[in-house]
Design goal:
This protein has 12 helices and 28 strands.
Length: 543
């Protein structure tokens, strides 16, 4: 397997199905002319995804052997290219959002029906019922997903643990947080390539746009496809990106074999260190949140050194997060608790750091009375391999006066499954004492953990940190206090730029997980179709 040229193609599609087909074929030709062997088209290539009723959706849906898809597969064969197209597809009376991969001989190599529908899509379309395939080709192992499936980690992660090296994402989105967060983070957290093709132009019928915009609470001008189709490397670097508006063919030469290197700078193999049996709740049938909401607002702090804990507490911070091993790797755990309790004396604050607790690396939650809780690290990491040989058996959530808190020590923050477990356990906030080693961890990883799980996050490292608060303006189809500016699912970010950073988080907002009508980020996860996440041997290696 050697380098291969890939293309993410962006364009507009309206209600004229023959016209949309002509656009698809023209853009495939353009991508092939630039030498692309793998070509990814946007979501809903056949027609705008807005239907008056189910009968209209059925009437305009493609059939596997119909003229629309026949023309696509013939064009793939003509260019000897792999082409991924996404259309509404009807089989057996159902209408799904189908991603189809055609090979260089025109054969259908794989089909993946969208598992998580976004908002009004669910009014007249049906969700997929099973995981999509990982398709082995001479250019690497390819996995497919579509738009909303990439706004949470479950589907891309499932494909990656089943061996996908290149993820092909078709989007139909006006949200700017796709290109800025949800697309690139899937590459970095899974150490895979992502080729993502988004729409431009109107995503809704022009005659209905004003009324729909009013119902959504979104300015009509912000309902065009957000473009910025992109190709992302396994370290999260965007190697090529299209414009915000206008047609484009975004190309790059990639080496899919780089996706087989799952190690971080300290040598930890992030996939070998996964603990699938701990992730069983993720693949269990979702249940509604049962815990009551936390406080509307609470001040928190990311603090660089132990000597600043009291300053943060006296400034009003109720949660103070230090870097991991802030007192040193050889510090006595009892002495750490005593020092923090003294610093918190006379306050109601809690502080979090990690300690060497016997053979475990554990996060400690301390208040003025002493140790209030602990959480051993769940995953092995090479940095602590000389002494940390025992690992936690579950993720705990602690009830504090202002809300429910999970502790995520050290490199556990690199695993999206850990934050998923926190959300399933009805956490409102997560404290992350850590030592970031790569830029994506703070810039992409933690913001995505907050966004996709609706969790407030407070993280502190020796040289960096961040406070991520949940915004009240979140659910589409509802009234917002502020103007919609293009982002749907993204936390409020306060970067920890100095020794003490105090900011507010919003525990009560963790109860609202509806990103749009009938689309719950946690309760709506496709648990039935991501079994590989909790499979002890999804790709032949026991862990």
């Amino acid at each position: 397997m050697g380098p291969v040229r890939v293309a993410a193609v962006q364009f507009a599609a309206g209600r004229d199905v023959p016209g949309n087909l002509a656009t698809c074929l023209r853009m495939i030709d353009r991508a092939a002319a630039e030498g692309a062997s793998i070509i990814v088209l946007p979501e809903f290539c056949n027609r705008l995804s807005w239907y008056a009723d189910r009968a209209e959706a059925l009437r305009h849906a493609c059939t596997p052997d119909g003229p629309f898809l026949t023309a696509i597969k013939e064009r793939a064969a003509a260019h000897r290219a792999y082409v991924k197209v996404n259309v509404t597809l009807t089989t057996g009376g159902r209408v799904t959002v189908g991603s189809l991969l055609y090979g260089p001989d025109g054969a259908l190599l794989g089909r993946s029906d969208k598992l998580t529908l976004m908002g009004a899509e669910g009014d007249n379309l049906d969700p997929g019922t099973a995981a999509g395939p990982v398709v082995a080709t001479p250019h690497g192992r390819l996995g497919m997903y579509a738009c909303m499936e990439g706004v949470t980690s479950d589907v891309p992660r499932d494909l990656a643990v089943r061996g996908a090296q290149v993820l092909l994402n078709s989007l139909n989105s006006f949200a700017t947080d796709e290109a800025g967060l949800h697309v690139p983070v899937r590459a970095a957290e899974n150490r895979v390539w992502v080729v993502a093709a988004n729409k431009v132009g109107p995503l809704l019928p022009a005659d209905l746009l004003p009324a729909i915009a009013e119902r959504l609470g979104v300015p009509a001008g912000l309902l065009d496809g957000a473009g910025e189709s992109q190709i992302v490397a396994p370290d999260g670097t965007v190697v090529a990106k299209g414009p915000r508006t206008g047609e484009a063919v975004v190309v790059a030469d990639i080496d899919p074999s780089l996706a087989d290197r799952k190690t971080r700078p300290d040598g930890t193999d992030l996939f070998a260190a996964r603990r699938p049996r701990l992730y069983t709740p993720i693949v269990a049938a979702p249940r509604p949140r049962s815990a009551p909401p936390g406080e509307a607002k609470v001040d928190v702090a990311a603090v660089r050194s132990p000597g600043l804990v009291r300053d943060a507490a006296l400034a009003g911070a109720e949660l103070i997060v230090l870097p991991e091993l802030a007192f040193g790797v050889d510090a006595d755990p009892g002495a750490v608790v005593a020092a923090l309790a003294t610093a918190l004396d006379g306050t109601t604050a809690h502080a979090v750091t990690t300690v060497r607790a016997g053979a475990a690396h554990a996060a400690y939650l301390v208040n003025a009375r002493g140790l209030a809780g602990s959480q051993p690290q769940l995953h092995a990491c090479a940095r602590h391999s000389g002494w940390a040989t025992e690992y936690g058996k579950r993720l705990a959530v602690f009830a504090l006066p202002w809300g429910r808190l999970a502790l995520v020590p050290g490199d556990d923050a690199l695993y999206p499954e850990v934050f998923r477990l926190a959300a399933i356990a009805d956490a409102d906030a997560v404290a992350v004492p850590c030592t970031p080693a790569e830029d994506w961890e703070i810039a992409l990883g933690l913001p995505e953990r907050a966004a996709e799980n609706r969790l407030n996050v407070v993280a502190s490292g020796p040289d960096d940190g961040v406070v991520l608060a949940l915004p009240a303006d979140f659910t589409l189809w509802t009234s917002w206090a502020g103007p919609f500016e293009g982002r749907i699912s993204h936390p409020l970010v306060t970067r920890a730029s100095g020794p003490v950073t105090v900011a507010a988080v919003h525990p009560a907002q963790a109860v609202n997980r509806l990103v749009s009508k009938n689309t719950d980020l946690v309760g709506g996860r496709p648990a039935h179709a991501v079994a590989a996440l909790a499979d002890d041997d999804p790709s032949g290696v026991r862990r």
